[in-house]
Design goal:
InterPro entries: 4Fe4S_Fe-S-bd, 4Fe4S_Fe_S_CS, Cys_rich_dom, Glc_ox_4Fe-4S, Helical_ferredxn. It comes from Phenylobacterium soli. Keywords: 4Fe-4S, Electron transport, Iron, Iron-sulfur, Metal-binding, Repeat, Transport. Helices cover 54% and strands 8% of the residues. The protein has 26 helices and 9 strands.
Length: 428
């Protein structure tokens, strides 16, 4: 693709990187077949190829973006399925990230949208505010249908995601290996997962400790920056990244491990976000399933052979290119792993997409749920808290993190959500 950026524009590293990405696109259209929004709408502007053309025009022209540009950039999930498909190696993550930041700086949204986009990072990245917001959400959760009728879809979407009260996970500290010590890892504590699914951290600490690793939950760490990046707030994300690099600087771990696939994609981009200061974090960042595939599982215990539908988070399979390890680990642990049809398509969670674009997110969720049902599996495994929260209300089977299953299979407690499933399997 030809570009016509000015020398002044190309002096900006973001424009230079975007030009490189744009010039690789040959408009072949392979990406359209795997783009979730194009599959739903059939609108070229909702495909990566169409968005790339809109982004090129917006960046080259400068000034205020048109309503059309904003609408179709906002509809992108950043699932990056297009990057898996693209034969030319277009860095679509760079383009969509640059476009969002540009829109954030040059477009004036309606007051309600501005408030919502401010509230999301202000609340979801702060544990105390998030805890209070979830408590408030539980008290008014029964009003969700009314918000739908009032055309307040984002509020209804938020209420649908609110979980039941749960015991908070363990806090910062070092949790020693329980078997022969092999090393030390930092476990990213995250901001949303501890409130939405605290059992995942507990399972991860037990599993890593049995694998021979001291687990460090570092004091002073915060959000990885993913939520802010989804909103085009790049400088805010950069500040969060700097805070984490500082908090981890004294630990010297073998790896920085995360149980949230979306966070892992962001950690691995710290070199891009922070330059040389972020490169060491990016080099050591690992999804927990990726790490366990490298170091091996602890010895297995006897467990029922349950059928598990493995849902691959987009941020793991497309963003991090971790494709075979999760299902292989589950199979090694004795589970009957079943692939979900159309597994390359997003479930509609995509960071905060299910809040900002609930109509598209609900269509993708229902499509994903129908494909999960087709597997006939008794349990669903998904390695990202957003996917778990998105899918769980739409399926009858319990939805758990693969780490919970691997912890159980290697001597940990059975996930409480599987009690009825296991009892039913025992009867049959």
């Amino acid at each position: 693709m030809r570009t016509h950026f000015s020398p002044e524009q190309l002096a900006d590293p973001d424009y230079a990187r975007s030009q490189q990405a744009l010039r690789k696109c040959v408009h072949c259209g392979f990406c359209t077949a795997t783009c979730p929004t194009y599959v739903l709408t059939g609108d070229e502007r909702d495909s990566p190829r169409g968005r790339i053309e809109l982004i090129r025009t917006m960046l080259e022209k400068g000034g205020r973006p048109t309503k059309e540009m904003v609408t179709h950039v906002d509809r992108c999930l950043s699932c990056l399925a297009c990057t898996t498909t693209c034969p030319s190696g277009v860095d679509y993550a760079q383009l969509i990230g640059h476009a969002r930041a540009y829109i954030e700086d040059h477009h004036r949204r309606p007051p309600w949208e501005r408030l919502l986009r401010w509230l999301i990072p202000a609340v979801m990245t702060n544990p105390h505010r998030l805890k209070a917001a979830l408590a408030l959400g539980r008290s008014v959760q029964h009003l969700e249908p009314w918000f739908h009728r009032l055309r307040l879809g984002p509020i209804a979407a938020l209420l649908r995601l609110v979980p039941s009260p749960m015991k908070p996970p363990r806090g910062p500290g070092t949790y020693p290996a329980v078997e022969a010590r092999r090393g030390r890892v930092i476990l990213l504590q995250g901001c949303v997962e501890p409130a939405m699914a605290p059992q995942v951290r507990e399972a991860a600490v037990r599993l890593l400790a049995r694998a021979g690793y001291d687990v460090v939950l570092a004091a002073g760490e915060g959000c990885c920056g993913a939520l802010s990046e989804h909103l085009g707030r790049t400088e805010e994300a950069r500040g969060m990244a700097r805070k984490n690099v500082l908090a981890w600087g004294h630990v010297a771990p073998d790896a920085i491990v995360t149980t949230a696939a979306g966070c892992g994609t962001t950690l691995k981009a710290y070199g891009h976000l922070l330059g040389e200061a972020g490169a060491p974090v990016a080099a050591k960042a690992r999804d927990i399933l990726e790490f366990l595939a490298e170091v091996g599982l602890p010895p297995l215990a006897d467990r029922p052979r349950l059928s598990v539908a493995y849902h691959a988070p987009c941020s793991l399979q497309h963003g991090q290119k971790v494709t075979t390890a999760p299902a292989r680990l589950l199979a090694e642990a004795g589970f009957d792993v079943r692939a979900v049809p159309e597994g390359h398509l997003c479930c509609g969670s995509a960071g905060v997409y299910n809040i900002l674009q609930p109509e598209f997110a609900n269509q993708l969720r229902d499509r994903k749920a129908a494909n999960i049902v087709r597997t006939g599996a008794l349990v669903v495994a998904a390695g990202n808290v957003g996917c778990i929260a998105q899918i769980a209300p739409a399926v009858q089977a319990p939805v758990v993190h693969p780490v919970e299953l691997l912890d159980w299979a290697t001597g940990g407690p059975r996930p409480a959500s599987l009690d009825q499933v296991v009892a039913g399997a025992a009867r049959t």
